[in-house]
Amino acid sequence: MELGVAIIILCFAAVFAAFLLLVFGLIYAEFSNSEIPAGVAQPGKLRLIHGLLVGIAVLGRIFQNMGLCTQLGFTRWVSNVLLPTSKVPPQLLIKDLTFAGVPVRVYQPKVPSAGHRRGLLYFHGGGWMLGGIDAYDGLCRYIAKESETVVVSVGYRLSPEHRYPAHLDDCLAATSHFLEVAEADYGVDPRKVAVGGDSAGGNLSAALCHRFVENDLPLPCAQILIYPVLQMADFNLPSYQQNQYVPLLYRARMAFYYLHYLNGDTSLLEDVLDGRHVPVELELKYRKWLGLDNLPPEFKTRGFTPRAVTAHDEEVYDLMKGALDPSVSPLLASDTVLCKMPPTFILTCEFDVLRDDGILFKKRLEDLGVPVTWWHVQDGFHGIVSFFDKGWLTYPSGKLALDHIVSFVKTL
């Protein structure tokens, strides 16, 4: 009886703490610079999610100041453990393994297959700092079940504990291992293995394909890029200006993640946002790919101010020139590399700072003859697909977007 009472008290305490966390987060978020424009899907729900995430971050900082844990560690724990996920479908066999020393979770359909199956290596998002196998469990289960595909979710190393190229190295190691054992261990045709991911995971997917081309290795059969991060040369594209304060990804936060991925020197944040890390001759070169003429007119209707070419800071460039490497900014790769990219699926969201990265990459690939399937979520924001199965947090347009991804996978 005493144990039962204790459990009830703990449950009430947890619910009350979560309520306070949400209320505090909402109050803080309301007084921050967040903006939710007209046209965003279910803006009240997005405000609640944003408030909850802000509350988690604030609580993490309190715990850090108390010496209980780090803010980042607490945020990772919440994202991997507390967010609800779907039940294990009976159609799947799920195993936690390591491929070439990299943690992975394999989702293998149980239903018999007439021939070899497809395979998908999935690289999670989270700004190279957050996310993980557990946080993306529901999404990978859904893709595996609905498309009858063997999905491998890769738990690559994270920043700030590890810097570039550790994340990309892990993705390459896991992918190479799977390609070696795909047929014998999983009944997967190695020629029907794709790579994909969302946000930072989309960056890793595109960078991995770039590395495969450079090293003259057999390419994945496709790449699936969900609101991908694709360049660090220009943080003043229309989508960066129009959506700079739209949750769940602010303009400054994206640059913050990039800096932690590369070298951890966040003192360069304002320089990078202003473009002082790009020499004038390079900025003029990149305009061929990043110029406003490459964007359809409908994405330039909301307010933004075209930025004039500005003088760069040589010291900042020396510290940040690695950011312009195609393995970090795949959108800046040469035509000779990009023309060899595999068929590509790109998903973008209207109210996302990364919208134009995806659209510009789409145009470059199409201009070079690479087949591209594009799905644009007109009322979407960054991260919407992750809420496809989160109960009352679910967004119908996020679920619809994921179903389009599944449909693309079925064509491989």
Helix content: 40-55%
Secondary-structure element order, N to C: HHHEEEHEHEHEHHHHHHEHEH
- Morphology call: globular
Low-confidence stretches: none
Strand content: 5-15%
Q: Give the structural class.
A: alpha/beta
Q: Count the beta strands.
A: 8
Q: Give the helix tally.
A: 14
Strand order of the largest sheet: 1-2-4-3-5-6-7-8
For the record, give the distance between the C-alpha atoms at the N and C termini, rounded to a whole number: 57 Å
Mean pLDDT: 91
Keywords: Hydrolase, Membrane, Transmembrane, Transmembrane helix
InterPro entries: AB_hydrolase_3, AB_hydrolase_fold, Arylacetamide_deacetylase, GDXG_lipolytic_enzyme
Transmembrane segments: 6-28
Family: Belongs to the 'GDXG' lipolytic enzyme family.
Characterise this structure:
By secondary structure, the chain is α/β, with parallel strands linked by helices. Helices cover 45% and strands 15% of the residues. An eight-stranded mixed beta sheet has the order 1-2-4-3-5-6-7-8, with helices on both faces. Helix 2 (43-65) packs across helix 3. The termini are far apart. The model has no long low-confidence stretch (mean pLDDT 91).
Task: Provide the descriptors you would attach to this structure in a database record.
membrane; hydrolase; globular; 8 strands; 412 residues; AB_hydrolase_fold; alpha/beta
Structure described in brief:
The protein has 412 residues and is α/β, with parallel strands linked by helices. The chain has 14 helices and 8 strands.
